[in-house]
């Protein structure tokens, strides 16, 4: 491995932001403790004990979830890298891209990701791109061959002119207007660009034509019964003037009678195949729609991975997920501002963030050993059994010689009676293979780093309607909650293997569905009892009432301050606040039900693939601030019930409050009902525009 003694990166703790966070934690802890004291101390003296006890439960759960979030705010760090100080000889990287269904993951977009990965700024002999086609679809196999042809013109063009928008689709869109303008005075550049543009347009037309013919010639659905296929689409040759990296197509064996293991199984197959073909010590994992947007991402990650002070225990470098199809009005919070601009930085100040599933550079060795044993393990031969001798076989040095072995390593029987998915490789313990694997790596003593560069290193496609957003959230919550309910949960297992702060961060995400209980109680009880004229809060003239106001104002300040510090606005805060309430009774609730359903054995958790497409009409609707509930039937049902309940109780409660002149007693519930009624208005508009 290359070594260096130069300064490769620095980090800083932002001030006074960090000090303000810590002071607020102290203040809010005192206020919420007093509020809980009031609730509990009055539990047996009030006439309405049952609703009072439920309100106490809701506020207790909100307090617990708030406490679990505080490590995010304790020591957030911001990092900066110095790629100029890297050694000239860099280690090799294998890029893993996984796709499965071209009906939901458009093949043209997948190939854009493949082509952009081939243009990463590394010497061609130090870069290899592996595409895992887990659907075994002939269309994907054809498309990757065409992508390899196009890359022969595209990659040299990018390297010659230092292009940063290395994805063709992005470059020939408005996303790269500034970059094209920068080179506009170069006549040679304009000639080369025109050639590439004609080639690119032709390729697009061919893809579209093939897609149309595919519908007539063969079924483009997933092939569930097939043999393994490993094919070298593009080989690296030292005498090749274009200097192209290797491109390999992998479709592992799949049989209906054998466990499939989903994405984790695909990644483990790629680990084995790449171990005998290219043997790169580092891997980059990308979703099929997560295009590379900066060729420097590999070098930026090496600023951490090659740092002698941290490299011994460093497992991976996580980049944020940025989405190119979202406008300024992100009403579904699909960008995940809080996660990628706040929480991940907070975890980075502990021992590193989650493994997010895409956009991360990982040291291959960490999947086969703990930090204290890493030096004694060969990451290329581990788990290969009798085939391990072939990895360094001098008589079989070329990749073509190793294709036969690679085919065997991609069979579904190879892992029988092995530690794959248990002790080595990506874990099979959860459908959230990356998040669970990252959690286990942290428990084993590895650490991670979060790097948020000024230019997005990777850009993906986010869901833009309630159905897709909630379906994606349901999958995440179900997987995380199942981990939280297992023997490997962060409360018992995590805290015995990690710091308390890092365990609390994991616990927050694994138990985040508890918001459902609190918000259902807050969304139903105060409104019902407002309708009846029965108070569940102190009188407005009581000092205790102002304690509730203080806690709410403190929480509001915390959220607004965080949004402003990460470049957001009041509109961003409102969008996040509103969708948080909506998702608590849709995606979070159904995710919790799904987890219980699976753990109880009453049903098998199904793999849900979120469409990787952009619907311009939905994007436009989102920009206008209008919800799109089309196709979200099961998610809309609880929303519709709560909206009707809120509006009816608000109108009836107002009548009761004015009739009985109980303004002092009912003021708290009046304010809460007013807020929920206001939120209901946008939901009503979304439901009203649904097509039957």
Structure report:
The protein has 692 residues and is of the alpha/beta class. It folds into 2 domains: 20-74 and 489-688, no CATH class; 83-465, Spore Coat Polysaccharide Biosynthesis Protein SpsA, Chain A. 50% of the residues lie in helices and 9% in strands. It contains 22 helices and 13 strands. It has an 8-stranded mixed β-sheet with strand order 5-6-4-3-7-11-9-12, with helices on both faces. Strands 8-13-10 form a 3-stranded mixed β-sheet. A two-stranded antiparallel sheet has the order 1-2. Strand 3 (93-99), helix 3 and strand 4 (127-133) form a beta-alpha-beta unit. Helix 2 packs across helix 10, helix 16 (515-532) packs parallel to helix 21 (633-660) and helix 21 runs antiparallel to helix 22 (663-688). It is globular and about 90 Å long. The protein starts with 8 loop residues before the first strand and ends with a helix.
What name is given to the CATH topology of the largest domain? Spore Coat Polysaccharide Biosynthesis Protein SpsA, Chain A
Form type? globular
- Strands across the major sheet, in which order? 5-6-4-3-7-11-9-12
Q: At the first level of CATH, what is the class of the largest domain?
A: Alpha Beta
Name given to the CATH architecture of the largest domain: Alpha-Beta Complex
The pLDDT mean sits at: 90
In quaternary terms, these chains amount to single chain
Instruction: Provide the structure class.
Output: alpha/beta
